[in-house]
């Protein structure tokens, strides 16, 4: 049955006078709807009816859950592969459930808060997982249970729990995988691991420090959110909230506009590394701040390889790196910058991928054009649809000149946010992951939420049409099969909402949101071989008020054609689910439980004294393809 709201809006769209009004307001057609006193986004924009069921989603959807346990679709099992603190490299001590492992222990153990990850097959029964360890939960990391590091040893332990864990896994006869230990592949990359810069900003004066006067070498990676995988078999790890690691006790330290653009708050460093490790004191070493916020390439199959920060991809709060190869051969990387009002980027290599010469491909991430997206409304005034352009962030063009403070391409890349401001890209509702549909090349991006949308300085726009957007949306764009294209069309795959709290109106969501699948804050995103869209959430789990009936954070699966969405899995208390990696046969899916019990309310997994972020291995009891 159509709801009256849908019919009402359908009528409005049919009304020629109204249509003229929308068309007349141009790119902000939808804004006109909202600010003109009409209280809803026209929810029939994508479909008048809830989507039909078709065969793509082969599992039974499950109800929301608030239990301190995994809930998963019938016929599936979710088991722990590895958890924070588990021994990883040779000589690693056992995990201490009271937090007494030292910094030196942690350097040899699996890191904390596992996030994005990729699977690299060795043969049919063996593979290597590269897994980000984004940040730490201090109350569980430290024996003292405090929210801050209180000594250099604490800082070193925190640094050792960050970065990336490389883990060899082997499948036994029952489709289950186990960690191989010892293994020549197992490796920890931390906030202290030596790496190098490459690309246009390598060696730039803004990257030079007392410890590295050439601006070519850097220690460590941290804030490693999500990931990407290149066609030549390397791992991309994406540095996100790097600003939270820098501070100073120098009371009169003046934050520069460039630092401010990356939200540096030096008086209140979230992890207070700067109190004990001077490298993170921005008054003492201001350029160290510029050496983070990049995408780092790692060869997971070469334990001796030095990770490389690829500056051509720009510096911002990187979420993931969705890599695809254009039909014409160029490497294309779609990237989101996760902060309210930040942008979506695309990188296109100058050269072409050469499958026969993997080493030649390494320079593709150093020589290319970085673009940023502008989303405009549909010229016909159709809501939740429109067109867009990719604007090149090229020194000397479009105002990226000395007058605006840019003196080189390195300046543009180091200050990518400021460059995107100059070319007037579209401010989005916190871009998180991007995934490319292998069947049609369309790219999907989670815009997780933006409670400040519609406030002063953050006006509504066609692609971000909802004020106080607490639920988020998934936008997708279509480049007509040419990933190098400068133009695209876009629409909204789902405007998330809660029909339980809001039976009608803009917070109800598009028709593919129902009382049975309602969720907020889509974040992780990935496609499987068959074209199922896997959606992971990192949102509010209060299960009350605006979030009633949504339960804990969850994993859902969408059908990109019909729009149908079903709940597949729910995580334990106060966690987020993140990271998504399939084995090549699509019979095992790895998903991460990150920060279970961040509210002090979980003993996940296995009734652990301290909750532990863990990699979950998901298989089907009948050994079939996941989701089919
Ligand atoms: Fe690390 Fe935007 O999530
Ligand atoms: Ca995320
Ligand atoms: Ca998030």
Give your account of this protein's structure.
- The protein has 628 residues and is mostly beta strands.
- It has ten helices and 29 strands.
- The chain has a single domain, classed as 6 Propeller (Neuraminidase).
- It has a nine-stranded antiparallel beta sheet with strand order 14-15-16-17-18-22-21-20-19, with no helix packed on it.
- Helix 2 crosses helix 3 (29-35).
- It is globular.
- The two termini are 29 Å apart.
- Bound molecules: MU-OXO-diiron and calcium ion (CA) (2 copies).
- MU-OXO-diiron binds at residues 115, 134, 225, 240, 319, 338, 432.
CATH class value: Mainly Beta
User: How many DSSP helices?
Assistant: 10
Instruction: Give the names of the bound compounds.
Output: MU-OXO-diiron, calcium ion
**Largest sheet features:** 9 strands, antiparallel
Structural class computed from helices and strand pairing: mainly beta
Q: Order the strands across the largest sheet as they lie in space.
A: 14-15-16-17-18-22-21-20-19
Give the full name of the CATH homologous superfamily: TolB, C-terminal domain
Estimate the helix proportion, in percent.
Answer: 10-25%
Mean pLDDT: 92
> Which segments are poorly predicted (pLDDT under 50) over 5 or more consecutive residues?
1-48
Distance between the termini: 29 Å
CATH topology: Neuraminidase
Beta-strand residue percentage: 25-35%
The number of domains? 1
Q: Choose one word for the global shape.
A: globular
For the CA atoms, what is the radius of gyration? Answer: 24 Å
Which SSEs are present, and which pair or pack?
Layout: H1 4-14, H2 16-24, H3 29-35, E1 71-72, E2 76-83, H4 103-106, E3 114-123, E4 126-133, H5 138-141, H6 152-161, E5 163-171, E6 177-179, E7 187-189, E8 194-198, E9 217-219, E10 224-229, E11 235-239, H7 257-260, E12 295-298, E13 308-310, E14 318-325, E15 330-337, E16 344-352, H8 358-361, E17 368-377, E18 385-392, H9 409-414, H10 416-422, E19 431-436, E20 443-447, E21 473-478, E22 487-495, E23 522-527, E24 533-537, E25 554-558, E26 565-570, E27 576-582, E28 588-594, E29 614-620
Parallel strand pairs: 8-13
Antiparallel strand pairs: 1-26, 2-29, 3-4, 4-5, 5-6, 5-7, 8-9, 10-11, 11-12, 12-13, 14-15, 15-16, 16-17, 17-18, 18-22, 19-20, 20-21, 21-22, 23-24, 24-25, 25-26, 27-28, 28-29
Helix pairs in contact: 2-3
Bound molecules: MU-OXO-diiron and calcium ion (2 copies).
